[in-house]
Amino acid sequence: MVHDETNLGLAMMLACMSRRTMPVALGVLYCDPAPCYESRVVAQVEEATSRSTNGDLNSLLRRGHTWIVKDKQAKTDA
What we know:
The protein is mainly α. The chain has a domain at 8-53. The protein is built from three helices and no strands. The N and C termini lie far apart (77 Å).
């Protein structure tokens, strides 16, 4: 058998082998072929930046889609 580190099923079988009856699998059992976290974040930021216009925080806050959080348990000094 040739090990395929992108095969999740094979990796699970190797990880679940009984230590009493089977040898211990060492090395890379599974490598997810998905892009790394950093490249996905950079792509997401670039996409969001390309879709948006130069925003104005003041106009964003005055659009009406805001709320006020009030403290229900206001402490009083007695």
